[in-house]
Amino acid sequence: MNRPNILFLMSDEHRPDVTGYEGNEVVLTPVLDSLAATGVVFSNAYTPSPICVPGRQCLMSGQLPKTCGCEGWFDLEPNYMTFARQFARHAYSTVCCGKLHHQTFDQMQGWMSRPAGDLSVTGAYFEGQVAEEFERYGRPFSDVKWSDTKEVLRAGVGRSRIIENDEDWTEAALKSIERHFNDAQYDRENRDRPMLLKVSLIAPHYPYQVDEERFGYYLNRVAPFLDQKVSDHPFLSRRQVRPGVDASERELRRATAAYYGMVDHIDTLYGTVLDQLEQVGQDLDDWIIIYTSDHGEMLGEHGIWEKQKFYEASGRVPLLIRWPKGFEGGKIVNENVNLCDLFATLCDLAGLPIPEGLDSRSLVPLLNGDASNWNNETVSQFQDTNVMIKQGHLKYQWYGHDSPEVLFDLEKDPSENTDYINDPAYKAEVDRFRVRLAELGHGPNADPNYMNAGYTSA
């Protein structure tokens, strides 16, 4: 029996509530909505790190930042065990079109083909670099990275390289599908060999710019976040764009409309990929199809833009898995899961062995409606000082030795405006979270022998 083909659709910075299938009545996402209606939606899926580089490396490795060594803007070591490498070892044709955000000289990390993507090695990973020469041409970070206010003020109608890249990478995916299954020109098709195809787009990552038609559709339909309660926490209050001070209501509306338009655009691009599969004679019901994003986007909620926070808008991600031939669709899973879990899940679905030492749990029982043995925990980390542990509806956060802890109760306060960390009613839960924090290698009592999260994959 042949192993299943897999289509892995991914975006960048997509907050999950800007989808039709999550109840958003403004955004147009018919392709994702259709996949969700016939697949399984995970309503409490979280990124292992709410920023691009570590979030993506943890996804690929099936390990939390502390386990794989990507606690900041660090890449995996060359030749690291990724799910792409594991599938390639078992004769899958592993193809990635788009963003992976690898920075070392190992730009493949298990992908056998990358016909289009963000292929570049940063200076920090270039062997033999002459440091003083690189310093001569360095630019201050403030010059390279605009402020969030500037991003909002520049939002609107435009064709950024984000959109250009996404369209180029989608076109590369269409060609890869044709060559694998048809190869009409040379008759060298390889349709019997299973394919793992990742189409990894950048939108709706800023700059917030989209075509005039989409922008015009959303401009007077979106409702920007105004009158938000801003936390007094030293980290959660960072990256503010103050309505009426830093940007007007109109400017915030423009940025929000552009963001919605970018989500609309990637939905259309994913549709062309599905159409191409059917064009070459593939039955989509035979394919495992996954959609997710590396993290969310605050979009002005709590007065904050971009990511890095453990708020739901930034830390929670869209995740849906569809495979009608493998499990029944039309379900919503409410248990806490993590992008790290996709490594074990993909292996389990395809019948491949799951490597040891992962922070990855197979989601197959949840896909089949069995949550009886699920521990209902998810963990996220940004650098060594910011850690989030969510168990059930409680979300605990640690921000280093010199910053206050935070506890949100999403059942009582889904808006995350109330911090229960000092509420006596939660003392037992806080104590339990602190013990778990230490087991995960963080906090004042961190386990010096930390190896991994201690999950079992099966």
CATH architect. name of the largest domain:
3-Layer(aba) Sandwich
CATH class of the largest domain equals Alpha Beta
Broad shape: globular
Strand order of the largest sheet: 5-4-7-1-9-11-2-12
Describe the protein.
This protein is of the alpha/beta class and 458 residues long. The chain has two domains: 6-381, Alkaline Phosphatase, subunit A (3-Layer(aba) Sandwich); 385-451, Arylsulfatase, C-terminal domain (2-Layer Sandwich), CATH 3.30.1120.10. 30% of the residues lie in helices and 15% in strands. The protein is built from 14 helices and 17 strands. The chain has helices at 30-38, 52-61, 65-68, 83-89, 131-136, 141-144, 148-153, 161-181, 212-219, 249-279, 312-315, 341-350, 364-367, 427-439; strands at residues 6-11, 40-42, 45-46, 93-98, 113-117, 156-157, 195-200, 209-210, 288-293, 316-317, 319-322, 331-333, 337-338, 377-382, 386-391, 394-398, 406-409. Strands 5-4-7-1-9-11-2-12 form an eight-stranded mixed sheet, sandwiched between helices. Strands 14-15-16-17 form a four-stranded antiparallel sheet, covered by helices on one side. Strand 15 and strand 16 form a beta hairpin. Helix 8 runs parallel beside helix 10 and helix 9 (212-219) crosses helix 10.
